[in-house]
Write a structure and sequence with these properties.
Length: about 500
């Protein structure tokens, strides 16, 4: 994993040397867009000097994000053609870049529109805007849309762009806008060097994202607000699956590690500088973070990670318990819960590397690999008999049911396989778990086993939203009473459904 750690350090150093930078690459939806805007708002409002440009930055971001969303249906099943959004801040100026595919036959018209807008000075641009607003598209001038005109007006700069042909049908369209902290509305400044310093480097950066299949990267100041916005963005993007829960938990731990344990590079900073990104390949999700640490803590942290990595997987639970129960022992080999927890969840050793900055600081990167697939739990389906119930346990759907009659000769033997299956499922449950009990009758021996099932469900209810459906006939008050009794003994959500008797 050294290559990934080196990449994190390289990106932290080289990506335009901006003080704020984040990039999202993937499928865009309403929730993702809202999180991107919220992340920008959080950072804009931290420093009053940016409040004057907030509305302009917002407008350009919204226009760019809408453009990506409109065109993403053109994407073939290819990770290299998904949309990209990037915002950077350096020297008080914001650089907003979007990328999406466009159809090749529309490229000449779009390029002509961009050139028209770029050819106009401030006064002409305002006049042109009013004409388009009143009359719609102007065919004589190529028909530049209001969005492009307004982005040029609000940024006070030329619009930079690039088209990269992908195949005979589509090209990748890069669009870059600069919003300075101070704008002279009477003059549109044509800074050709911006294209060289910004857009060309971003295209190279996009190549790295595609090669490494990086989904999301954030470089800048980390604090609690930024962490929450990043987590919301990640949660919106990921499907509700077994592996997503594990990935999300590790991401949360890594982000908290930067917020809590990262070091400032100067006292004026409002948070901890660092970098974070998520990538994936055919087998794994790869989660990487980087932040500064004091040189005096370097050897201690290295020893802790090495100690965690030396533990066999079976030893990790014991190590976790020891740290949990003995937080202040002073044991030289004692380490934080976070490192052990990430090792347990990932089932892989932790990748890490230290880069010496100077005599006082190191830059520290940590990489976690998590398998994309998990061992599939086979569906358990037991057909009913005269004295045993019908059982259907489907881990993929997270829906389980036991129905009909239960008075087996040996209830413990019959239910043992069911309880073992549920216990195994509880190690990595779905986000939603529903268990339906629909008995016609069960004996007291069965009731003890049913209680065991319900207790197993309660044990993993902190990891899954467990719901119990208890069905009973309207003429069977005893079955209702038994369900209510079980409900009182556990802290689970019960839904009682009355069945009309025929």
């Amino acid at each position: 994993m050294n290559e990934t750690n080196d990449l994190a350090y390289q990106l932290f150093q080289d990506i335009q040397q901006g003080t704020l930078e984040y990039c999202y690459r993937g499928v865009f939806n309403r929730s993702i867009t809202e999180n991107i805007l919220s992340l920008a708002e959080t950072n804009l409002e931290k420093e009053k000097r940016f409040l004057s440009v907030k509305r302009r930055v917002y407008f350009i971001m919204v226009e760019g994000l809408q453009n990506i969303t409109r065109h993403q249906e053109l994407n073939p099943d290819n990770d290299e053609t998904v949309g990209i959004f990037l915002i950077q801040m350096r020297d008080g100026h914001f650089f907003i870049t979007t990328g999406n595919v466009v159809e090749n036959d529309k490229v000449p018209d779009l390029q002509e529109k961009l050139e028209i807008v770029n050819s106009l000075d401030a006064a002409s641009l305002k006049k042109y805007y009013l004409e388009v607003l009143e009359n719609g598209e102007l065919s004589k001038k190529g028909g530049a849309g209001l969005g492009l005109i307004e982005m040029c007006r609000k940024s006070g700069n030329k619009l930079f762009y690039n088209f990269r042909k992908i195949n005979d049908k589509i090209s990748y369209f890069y669009f870059n806008t600069k919003v300075p902290s101070q704008i002279d509305d009477k003059k549109i400044v044509n800074e050709l060097k911006i294209k060289e310093q910004s857009l060309d480097k971003i295209i190279d950066f996009h190549k790295i994202l595609n090669k490494e299949n990086i989904i999301l990267t954030f470089k800048g100041i980390f604090d609690q607000e930024n962490m929450l916005n990043l987590l919301s963005m990640i949660e919106s993007q990921m499907n509700a699956s077994l592996i997503s829960i594990k990935v999300f938990n590790v991401i949360m731990e890594l982000l908290q590690n930067i917020v809590k344990h990262g070091e400032l590079t100067n006292k004026e900073q409002l948070g901890k500088p660092g970098i974070f990104f998520i990538s994936k390949n055919e087998k794994n999700f790869i989660i990487t973070s980087g932040n500064y640490i004091l040189a005096e803590n370097y050897q201690k942290l290295e020893d802790k990670i090495n100690y965690v990595n030396l533990l066999e997987y079976e030893e990790l639970d014991d190590a976790y318990d020891r740290v949990l129960l003995d937080e202040g022992s002073g044991n030289a080999k004692k380490t934080g819960l976070g490192l052990i927890d990430m090792r347990i969840k990932s089932e892989n050793k932790l990748g890490f590397k230290f880069y010496k900055i100077d005599s006082e600081q190191y830059f520290y990167t940590l990489t976690i690999k998590i398998k994309k697939s998990v061992n599939k739990i086979e569906t358990l389906n037991i057909k009913p008999t005269d004295d045993t119930p019908e059982v259907m346990l489907d881990a993929e759907k997270g829906f389980f049911s036991i129905a009909k009659r239960s008075y087996p000769e040996n209830a413990i033997d019959f239910y043992d396989v069911i309880i073992s299956w549920i216990r195994n499922y509880g190690k990595q449950p779905n986000t939603e778990t529903t268990f339906s009990f629909d008995f016609e009758y069960f004996n007291t021996a069965s009731s003890k086993q049913i209680m065991k099932i319900i207790l197993e469900l309660e044990r993993f209810s902190n990891k899954s939203n467990v719901k119990i459906i208890w069905k009973y006939k309207d003429i069977d008050e005893d079955m209702l009473s038994l369900g209510l009794r079980f409900q009182r003994l556990v802290n689970l959500n019960f839904e009682f459904i009355e069945i009309k008797s025929e």
